[in-house]
Give the backbone structure.
Amino acid sequence: MKNQKQTIRKIVSVLNNADEDGGFWLPNIQRPFVWSEDQICKLFDSIMREYPISTLLIWKTTSTIRHRKFIDNWNSSLRLSDFYVPEDSKKKCLVLDGQQRLQSLYIGLCGSFEGKELCFDVLSGDLSAPDEIKYKFKFCYAAEIMFPWVKFKDLIFTTKKKREMLDNLKTSAGRPLSEKEQNKLDDHLDIIDRTFKMDEAVTYQELDSIDNPALYKEDDVVEVFIRANSGGTKLGKSDLLFSLLSSSWEEADKKMEVLLDSLNTHGFEFDRDFVLKTCLVLIGQGAKYEVEKFRKEGVRESIEAKWNEIAGAIQAVLDFVREKTFIQCDKALPSYNVLVPLVYLRYQYEDSWKKAKDVDTYLLRCLLGGAFSGVPDNIIDALVKKLTETKTFDVNEIFSVIRTQNRSLEVPEERFWQMGYGSSTIHLLFNVWYRSFNYTPAYLNNMPQIDHVFPQSILKDIKVLNPETNRMIMKYDASRRNQLANCMLLSREENGAGGKSDMPPEEWFPKRIAEEGPDYLKKHLIPPDEALWKIDRFEDFIVARRKLIQERFKSLIVPAVKAKI
């Protein structure tokens, strides 16, 4: 393994440049670029302060490895597949460790971030709180760039002499500069020349498969990549597992990208972890999610060979859930793992899946009861075993298996009333409650919103005297303001500009009844006694509404056991 050094300006010129000893590229096993504007700016501040940049890891090879270009003009809508380059057997250098740093340098010096270019405050240089930044950088649109901010790339890639650059900067100031400011300009140009153009600040270790083809084979390089990236937080488990899968399957990344785009079209957030875990279950490897399984002979090959069937089963189950059950959005699905047994049934026994009944009951009881919370590997394996034995979906047998795993399917009364504003299950509960709401979040931006019946702003203003401190305090704390009986579901239009906002119920309900009729109260389980809608009857309203809610969900709630006297 050889150590090499280069200046930053030189290393950036090598990226995507096949004429520079094959050029530097990214292997497709690398995850997407994830650094923020702030992280990029801090990197440039560190370089200006002559802090060391960690060593990079490069693989020199002529193998026909799938790879892609570094991104110059980055934006959040980009797809990695747009940056693929044709595979060839020419010499190339693939970056195994250091992508985020090199990509940041490339964006800052050669491109843009969301249409903005990296700018440097040429009069900075003093430490400033809270992040102890010394040299100030930020991304700016062209029209926003005004002295003392200048495009940083113009200071790096220039043929002008230092004296000419200083004169240009002084002119752009539009005012006389103090001697201290002029000294700063002079010092900063010296620092930039030294840190970006003269010092060999970038060190990289080179795995040379051209001169040592027997020492660094492709499988060895994948292992090096995993070990290099598993020591910290740079990669998640899905990145590591996917690197193994994609190392032997050319279309893995594109197939995964297409599937996730399709699954998430309607406002869900499925990720590679869910898909890879499901793959393991469907090909008989169990639900435990670990690297060793992807190293086993035949596992990666099975996933590749059966991908279309696997992807089809996942998509079919999600389509069913969206169209036939109460789950309309990501917020109403607190655990995606509850879907894995259903995908297994659809994948292995499609006819049984078509005849399955009570799937909505299964989802509701499991999700509200938290049956798949924590680490659900054992329960998934147990359900898969039962489905394999029976080859059918019998909700009673499914529930029996779940209970043998000491998992709950019931909602204790105390926990039910804790499903208030901000809880992880209130959207699920409201999706059941408000079955008539019809919306497609990703297309119509029409996500229903949880709102307070009695507005928080009004309840916060109600004060009572604390007899212990003799001071006025809020009568209703957050738990009482946010309780389930003070929550309702409103459409985006109802809760938007000109909608409910902070309107008290004694004004809001008559307005809605006039437009929608008395059924509006029934839909929201609102006590019809108008006297209870007044702010001074808040507590009476909560008692009355809890009774209506409890009656509506009595089949789900396990009553609290009263202590014996």
Summary: Residues 2-203 form one domain. The chain has a mean pLDDT of 84. The first strand starts at residue 2 and ends at 6. Residues 238 and 273 are 5 Å apart (CA to CA).
